[in-house]
Write a structure and sequence with these properties.
The protein contains 14 helices and 30 strands. By secondary structure, it is of the alpha/beta class. The chain has three domains: 118 residues, Immunoglobulins (Immunoglobulin-like, Sandwich); 284 residues, TIM Barrel (Alpha-Beta Barrel), CATH 3.20.20; 80 residues, Sandwich (Immunoglobulin-like). A hairpin with a 5-residue loop joins strand 27 and strand 28. The radius of gyration is 26 Å and the shape is globular.
């Protein structure tokens, strides 16, 4: 056994509270090096009566390591524990003191989880496990009230630029709620709706006023109520890293410089505020002079923004906040933000925009989830652009699974594209078969899936601003077959808890191949998802013990002969089979 590859740390990802009575423990070993792992647990003050042995489950693998996990319910909220590794005739023990070939006497030197405090655990809202989000860019979704259009509004469906307008508004969203209900989604995420100078509204001028081109505060409340009546949750976009150039306190600093009472609201390196060699003399989002960065360590700024967060939670019974550029705001602000939001609505869902490994925000004191762009990259690299074989894809997905605690993985905000990226069908080169494979994976994988508006009817678009095209509402111009496909997969996920919360595991993912087989499994249902991500017809098989499987979408029986299920898949095709347990 390769000892150098074995790792466990009694904190964060490796030993964490899953809920009020369960601790989950993980350990890492070299890939394919160890056959079995057991964990010995007990209460350090009453070892003899509480000692138990638990087999650990290999829940993920990446290119170099296997990862094992087990859920333990301690008798008295405390656990001391040691690991036992077996491979062939060799048995190895590991405690905090190191490795041993003899069983170490408990509990001295054992790893220790001192006490399970529910208040310290990450506790996302349970409804997020059930949610299927639909992201809307309000200016481009639907024009329900031409009376509030900008003066320079262009005809609907024109070519999007960084600065043009087409008149989308909140009334347009209200008018299309029946469409969203037909699709089957049960949550919407709106990019910013507050008063701002741009079409995207990420340069806020007034945080407590809906942009006049979108409607009124009362109309936003009406939208929230209409959504809730249809069982649709609402998440808004909070832009607290920076404001817009026309934000009154920033204008005051521009006018009065260091004499402004707001001068410490921003990160000013040099007065007067100007731009030198393309770089503002004050911190901004990127180097965009019209997006000055807040000093969120300033008590007045913190109070102002937290009041905004609380205001909209209460004003429209908001279900959650998506946090723009969340990784560039200090952690203490987000800790305060969580307290304020959860006091206003304990069931609110807090999603940070972080494009990289986000564990430091997902330890229970800041966010419930993050936008899982790394997931999107791996899925589209594999299905859309064929940049890797199936084993490499499985390894990369395994690496994502081990980044976060299980409860974070259950509500991680999974997406394929957004207002900041090329659209999924465009990444697929317009090939619907590849898009469908990507969507099947999205909707049968762990986490909270999100669909970008228009993807379901074949909308395409390259990078920003092309990805922000107007929604196509002429049914003759919509891909209704694709719409029906999305609707069927959404319904399948909604009707089966195993596809939302069940265990996930790759069963086949070959090297130098692009075929996949993976499972989702809970106490009630067992799903097998077969995929052929190649240009040739493929026949796949897998050993199974029972003959009670059926196609999850057509309900047709799927036979098992001589202990094997064999599935023939056309190029870039899939099949989902299941059985009741």
């Amino acid at each position: 056994m390769n000892r150098e590859a074995i790792y466990h740390g009694p904190k964060n990802l490796w030993a964490y509270a899953y809920n009020h009575d369960t601790v989950r423990l993980r350990v890492r070993t070299q890939r394919d090096d160890i056959e079995e792992v057991f964990i010995y647990t007990g209460d350090k003050y009453d070892w003899e009566k509480t000692a138990l042995t638990h087999p650990m489950d290999k829940f993920a693998s990446d290119a170099m390591f296997d990862y094992w996990e087990v859920a333990v319910k301690p008798t008295y909220r405390r656990i001391s524990y040691a690991f036992q590794f077996k491979s062939g005739d060799e048995t190895l023990w590991m405690t905090e003191d190191g490795f041993s070939y003899e069983e170490p006497a408990p509990p001295g030197g054992y790893f220790d989880y001192p006490y399970l405090h529910p208040i310290d655990s990450l506790t996302p809202p349970s409804w997020a496990k059930e949610a299927i989000f639909y992201q809307i860019f309000p200016e481009r979704f639907a024009n329900g009230d031409p009376g509030n259009d900008p003066e320079d509004v262009e005809p609907w469906g024109g070519k999007p630029t960084e600065s043009n307008y087409f008149g989308g508004d909140l009334q347009g969203i209200i008018d299309k709620l029946d469409y969203l209900a037909e699709l089957g989604i049960n949550a919407i995420y709106l990019t910013p709706v507050f008063h701002a100078s741009s079409n995207h509204k990420y340069d806020t001028k007034d945080y407590k006023q809906v942009d006049p081109h979108f409607g009124t505060n009362e109309l936003l409340a009406e939208l929230g109520e209409a959504c809730h009546q249809k069982g649709i949750r609402v998440m808004l976009d909070a832009v607290f890293n920076h404001c817009g150039y026309e934000f009154p306190p920033f204008q005051d600093v521009l006018k009065h410089g260091k004499k402004s009472k707001y001068h410490d609201w921003f990160h000013v390196r040099e007065f007067p505020l100007t731009v030198k060699d393309g770089i503002p003399t004050y911190d901004t989002f990127g180097f965009f002079e019209h997006m000055p960065k807040f000093n969120t360590a300033n008590p007045e700024v913190r109070k102002y923004l937290l009041d905004v967060a609380e205001y909209w939670i209460k004003e429209i019974k908001l279900d959650g906040w998506r946090l723009d550029v969340a990784n560039e705001v200090d952690h203490q602000f987000w800790r305060d933000f969580r307290k304020v939001v959860k006091e206003a609505n304990p069931d609110a869902y807090i999603v940070g925009e972080v494009w990289n490994d986000s564990i430091m925000w997902l330890l229970g004191d800041q966010f419930d989830s993050v936008m899982n762009y790394p997931f999107a990259n791996q899925v589209l690299d594999f299905f859309a652009e064929e940049r890797m074989d199936a084993q490499t894809f499985a390894n990369k997905i395994g690496a994502l699974l081990v980044r976060y605690p299980k409860q974070a993985n259950e509500v991680i905000f999974n997406l394929l594209c957004s207002h900041d990226t090329p659209r999924a069908l465009t990444r697929c080169g317009g090939d619907k078969r590849k898009l469908k494979l990507s969507i099947v994976f999205l909707l049968t994988y762990m986490g909270t899936p999100c669909i970008f508006y228009g993807d379901e009817i074949g909308l395409q678009g390259d990078d920003d601003p092309d990805c922000r095209k107007c929604m196509e509402w002429e049914e003759k111009n919509q891909d209704r077959e694709l719409f029906d496909f999305y609707r069927a997969l959404i319904e399948l996920r909604k009707n089966n808890r195993a596809l939302r919360e069940g265990d996930f595991r790759f069963l086949q993912a070959g090297e130098a191949e692009r075929t996949l087989l993976y499972e989702r499994l809970d106490e009630e249902k067992h799903f097998l998802i077969w995929m052929n991500n190649t240009e040739e017809e493929q026949q796949l098989s897998h050993p199974l013990k029972t003959n009670d499987w059926h196609d999850a979408l057509s309900e047709e029986p799927v036979p098992v002969k001589d202990g094997y299920m064999s599935i023939t898949l056309k190029p870039f095709d899939y099949r989902i089979v299941c059985r009741s347990l």
